[in-house]
Write a structure and sequence with these properties.
Keywords: Membrane, Transmembrane, Transmembrane helix. This protein has 252 residues and is α/β, with parallel strands linked by helices. Helices cover 40% and strands 21% of the residues. Bound molecules: magnesium ion.
């Protein structure tokens, strides 16, 4: 009797407990599903989709041949005391000692039916400098030296064929005994051209396009060309190089 009574009394309680347990289980799985759904969406937003977009964008990057945007500007380089230094063998200067770490070459020059022998020294880091800037600019050499001398020197330093044009003394403008450089011969649009020269008088016609570099003669530890690279790397993105280069004149 008491057992029947107990069972009769406890049955509704058991039913209620089972029902509650089922509700809690359903609630648990519902919340778990919601949590997993949120986690998946979060991961998609942060990682998976951007990665897919990156892959798609990477596929759309033009090939090297099409990246003319980076080569839209022209960098004109002076030759003597900017990239090399030369002495004529037999002259007084040729007697001076030069560090054995400096790369040099004897170059024979035919001038006025005479054969002259020059010892030409490369400024430290010239090869790396030319290779690097040729990825950013159209590279031109503009020198006040005679073509008979400068041509074979340029042939020597341009081992990777990165120099696209050459201008010599006959292309300079003679003013008060100085050879000035007409940058428009290389690039008519002055927004897109600059001249690196150890002699500031060389860019007297276009002062806002000039970048002065310390004169180099024989210092084996010179790093001026390396120091210039970060600046040239940034300058290639300027809409008008003069807007940046004129600042250096104001700061002086
Ligand atoms: Mg010079």
């Amino acid at each position: 009797m008491s057992a029947t009574f107990t069972t009769a009394l406890s049955t509704p309680g058991l039913t209620t407990n089972n029902s509650l347990r089922k509700k809690r289980t359903r609630l648990f799985f519902s919340q778990m599903y919601h949590y997993l759904s949120l986690t998946y969406n979060f991961l998609c937003a942060l990682v998976i989709l951007p990665r897919k977009k990156l892959v798609t964008a990477t596929k759309n990057i033009p090939k090297n041949n099409d990246m003319q945007y980076y080569k839209g500007k022209t960098l004109i380089l002076d030759l003597d005391e900017t990239l090399v230094h030369s002495v004529r063998l037999g002259s007084e200067n040729s007697m001076k000692e030069v560090s054995p770490s400096i790369i040099k070459k004897n170059i024979e020059v035919q001038c006025d039916k005479q054969n002259l022998l020059y010892e030409v020294y490369k400024r430290p880091h010239v090869d790396f400098f030319l290779k690097t800037i040729s990825q950013w600019y159209k590279v031109v050499i503009y020198t006040a030296s005679m073509a008979e001398y400068a041509d074979p020197v340029i042939d020597w330093i341009d081992q990777d064929n990165v120099i696209s044009r050459r201008f010599f003394r006959q292309s300079c403008v003679l003013k008060n005994g100085n050879f000035l450089k007409d940058l428009t011969l290389a690039e008519e649009d002055l927004c897109k051209v600059c001249l690196v020269d150890n002699s500031p008088i060389a860019f007297d016609l276009y002062k806002e396009n000039g970048i002065a570099l310390p004169t180099w003669i024989s210092n084996p530890n010179d790093e001026s060309l390396l120091d210039l690279l970060p600046f040239l790397d940034a300058l290639r993105f300027a809409a008008d190089v003069r807007s940046i280069l004129r600042l250096q004149h104001k700061l002086k």
